[in-house]
Amino acid sequence: GREKWYESVEEMQEDLDSYLNHYNRERTHQGRGMNGRVPYQAFLDGIVNDEAEAETIEEAA
């Protein structure tokens, strides 16, 4: 069953925010290509790689 009953939406939002922070920024991920990074870092690395690739394409044109 349910472990916690919330008294307000704000209380529920606090727990959700805490969970999402832990899930995306604190726990390492074992998925393929993650190399022990947290999901947020993989996201940021992807943005940097996409920008670098776009610059390379522009320079070649």
Report on the structure:
It comes from Oceanidesulfovibrio marinus. This is IS481 family transposase. It is a single chain. About 0% of the residues are buried. Helix content is about 65%, strand content about 0%. With about 60 residues, it is an all-alpha fold. The chain is built from two helices and no strands. It is elongated. The model has no long low-confidence stretch (mean pLDDT about 85). The protein has one domain (about 10-60). The longest helix is centred in the C-terminal third of the chain and has 22 residues, at about 40-60.
Domain count: 1
Question: What share of the residues lie within helices?
Answer: 55-70%
Q: Largest sheet, if any? A: none
Q: Report the span from N to C terminus.
A: 60 Å
Structural class by helix and strand composition: mainly alpha
Uncertain residue ranges: none
Radius of gyration: 18 Å
Number of helices: 2
Topology as H/E string? HH
* Percentage of β-strand residues: under 5%
What would you call the shape?
A: elongated
Mean pLDDT: 85
Protein name: IS481 family transposase
Organism: Oceanidesulfovibrio marinus
